[in-house]
Amino acid sequence: MTQNIGIIGGTFDPIHFGHLHTAWGILEQLSLDQIRFIPCGIATHREAPVASAQQRLDMLECAIQSDDKLIIDRREIERDGPSYMIDTLKSLQADFPDAQLHLILGMDAFSELDTWKDWQALMDYTKLVIVRRMPYQLPVDAKFRAWYGEQEAQGKVIFTQDIPLLEISATQLREALRSGRSPRYLLPEAVLHYITENKLYLR
Predict the structure, then answer these.
(1) pLDDT category of residue 106 using cuts at 50, 70 and 90
(2) Using CA atoms, how far apart are residues 130 and 140, in angstroms rounded to an integer?
(3) Which of the pair, 143 or 85, is modelled with greater confidence?
(4) SS3 per residue for the chain
(5) How confident is the model at residue 11 (pLDDT cuts 50, 70, 90)?
(6) Which residues contact 80 (CB under 8 A, 6 or more apart)?
């Protein structure tokens, strides 16, 4: 039987309920067997994380320790050099040769997909699951639109439906902590306790 694996990449700096709520909604909607959270090692499309790699892994452990369908995958952090998704997908396919991969992206990331390394080759390894979020729109680049239309016609691009999005951002959480405001109820209590104990995001 083919295993269906969801993939969510990012810095998770810190992980919050927006990540977890979306992941679980997609897992149920698409009947996935698991979702793998893959924290990046060296970011290529955003600023470097504030928390260290180990701290971000620790926070992920705090967040999903009780759920065996949500998996922490360390491959990008353990890999030397920049974290490129094409390399991650190749590695995942080698580890799970009989699985169908589902790369989960927000509209913001999808709208910039044509800036990723070997972006057109991504579909050789995965389907794309796009989380609807306004106000992002598809880019106007004709080459990208033609490629996207072809992939959608082949069933390789899936738009999520009826998953209420929690508008929480890690940037806002870090700003709240720096200003002395509590982000309670925006992230798991165990993650907030870890942040407090380790005095993260205070500057």
Answers:
(1) confident
(2) 17
(3) 85
(4) CCCEEEEEEECCCCCCHHHHHHHHHHHHHCCCCEEEEEECCCCCCCCCCCCCHHHHHHHHHHHHCCCCCEEECCHHHHCCCCCCHHHHHHHHHHHCCCCEEEEEEEHHHHCCHHHCCCHHHHHHCCEEEEECCCCCCCCCCHHHHHHHHHHHHCCCEEECCCCCCCCCCHHHHHHHHHCCCCCCCCCCHHHHHHHHHCCCCCC
(5) very high
(6) none
Q: Which two tokens stand for residue 113?
A: 């997909």
Cα–Cα dist 64/50, whole Å: 21
Instruction: Please name the CATH architecture into which domain 4-167 falls.
Output: 3-Layer(aba) Sandwich (3.40)
